[in-house]
Design a protein that fits this description.
This protein is an all-alpha fold. It is built from twelve helices and no strands. The longest helix is centred in the middle third of the chain and has 38 residues. The termini are far apart. The N terminus is likely disordered.
């Protein structure tokens, strides 16, 4: 009996040991089981963000055009801020003062004569002023910058032409203002009566002639885009027409119709007739309208490097 119970006890012990071994083995196996990945917070950083509707910006709105008055002020500043512009202005003022005072001392106190004396300097310097205005961009290689800021070249050219024309009017008024006190002073010093007779129409015609002189320089400069060549042509033209006028009847006719200095003489005198107006129109078309039109077309189509 006793022997029969003992084996059964051992068998139960063996079963218990086996279960414990299995339990331990399973715990050991769990220690080598791969761990589940822990979700990291950094993974959210790579998640594509939903687009947030933004307010419409003005980056694609076309820029407003530059006002013409600003272009005009810039070109007027260029006319007088440069070294050549300042020198031309000083020389013009000194020449007007010297010529009027010198002519008053020599010829006497005649207002009409003193005012016309200033035209000698104007005929030489005002065309040069117009030429330098339209050729400076190409001489200094700044045309690319100017036309990049304002691509509409016609507006730029118009802004360039107006300041010299206005300067011609202002210079004419300055000469008149200088001639009046010089006439009075010369009459007092020389103790002779002053001659004040001058017609407003003659003053207006003289001012218009100065404007035409500047317009001629602008037209030739616009056509050639070369300051030295344009200056030589404008300054040598009166001499050439004087030679042409002495070539007989044909030369006289050509001078009467195509020499702007000759056709503008009745305008300065204030007694222009219908035939004189026609001749002035022809010479103006020949020297101003045709070169200016051709020059504008050239500038508009010219490739800026």
């Amino acid at each position: 009996m006793t022997n029969t119970d003992i084996p059964a006890t051992r068998s139960g012990m063996n079963d218990t040991a086996t279960d414990e071994a299995m339990t331990i083995g399973s715990k050991t196996a769990d220690t080598h089981r791969p761990l589940a990945p822990i979700p990291s917070k950094t993974a959210d950083t790579h998640r594509p963000l939903t687009s947030i509707p933004s307010k419409p910006t003005d980056t694609h709105r076309p820029l407003a055009p530059i006002p013409f008055h600003r272009l005009l002020s810039v070109e007027a500043r260029k006319l007088f801020d440069t070294r050549s512009g300042k020198i031309m202005t000083v020389v013009l003022i000194v020449l007007v003062l010297a010529s009027i005072i010198g002519r008053g001392v020599v010829s006497g106190p005649k207002l009409h004569t003193l005012i016309g004396t200033a035209g000698i300097g104007f005929g030489t310097l005002l065309p040069v002023l117009g030429i330098l205005t339209v050729t400076a961009e190409w001489s200094h290689r700044t045309a690319l910058t100017t036309f990049a800021l304002e691509p509409r070249r016609r507006r730029v050219l118009a802004a360039k032409c107006l300041p010299p024309l206005i300067t011609a009017v202002v210079a004419s008024l300055f000469a008149m203002l200088v001639a009046v006190p010089v006439t009075a002073v010369v009459a007092a010093v020389q103790d002779v009566p002053a001659t004040w007779e001058v017609t407003p129409l003659a003053l207006l015609g003289w001012t218009g002639t100065n404007v035409l002189v500047v317009a001629t320089g602008l037209a030739v400069g616009m056509l050639l885009l070369n300051a030295p060549a344009a200056i030589v042509i404008c300054l040598s033209t009166p001499i050439l027409w004087a030679v042409v006028g002495k070539l007989g009847a044909t030369g006289t006719v050509l001078t009467e119709w195509f020499d702007l200095n000759t056709t503008a003489t009745p305008l300065m005198a204030g007694d222009m007739t219908g035939g004189d107006a026609v001749q002035l129109t022809v010479s103006t078309i020949f020297w101003i309208v045709i070169p200016m039109t051709a020059g504008v077309v050239r500038v508009i189509r010219k490739e800026v490097n």
